[in-house]
Amino acid sequence: MIGVAMRLLRRRALAEEAVHDTFLQLWKKADSFDPARGDARSWLYAILRNRALNILRGETRTDLVEDFEPMGLVSEEENAEAVMMRLSDTGSLKRCLERLEPARRQAITLAYIHGLSHGELAGRLGVPLGTIKSWIRRSLISLRECMA
């Protein structure tokens, strides 16, 4: 678990904090685990991932507003297209991502590479929250089918 947290947080102290917090949450919410919904290991790592992303975001959530620039929320990170261009030309992931519409491809890369939540994506892309959720869901289904 430390290895997964290290990949997300890039600092050992933060990774250890995330793992510790994950186990605390598991202890408190153990009764909420439903084996019919999935494997215990998947549940554990989902909690760890969410905790690590919250640490990366500084425990704050971005409210949806019309103008992000005055708040300093425009990212200086590379954009979705630049990330895609770095993928290998022969890789199946790049081929499958190219099949997606540009807006959906951008939503997927922002969510999974930069760790943005649905609400943050909706605010950044100027799209309703429900639309973002359906884009992510349908795009992941499409990517899964393409990669299979």
Automatic annotation (TrEMBL):
Keyword annotations of the record: Sigma factor, Transcription, Transcription regulation
Domain of life assignment: Bacteria
Pfam families noted in UniProt: Sigma70_r2, Sigma70_r4_2
Ranges of residues in domain RNA polymerase sigma factor 70 region 4 type: 92-140
GO MF terms held by the record: DNA binding; sigma factor activity
Keyword Transcription regulation: yes
Domain RNA polymerase sigma-70 region residues, every copy: 2-62
Keyword 4Fe-4S included in the entry's annotation: no
Biological processes, Gene Ontology terms: DNA-templated transcription initiation
Family: Belongs to the sigma-70 factor family. ECF subfamily.
Protein name: Sigma-70 family RNA polymerase sigma factor
Lineage of the organism: Bacteria, Pseudomonadati, Pseudomonadota, Alphaproteobacteria, Hyphomicrobiales
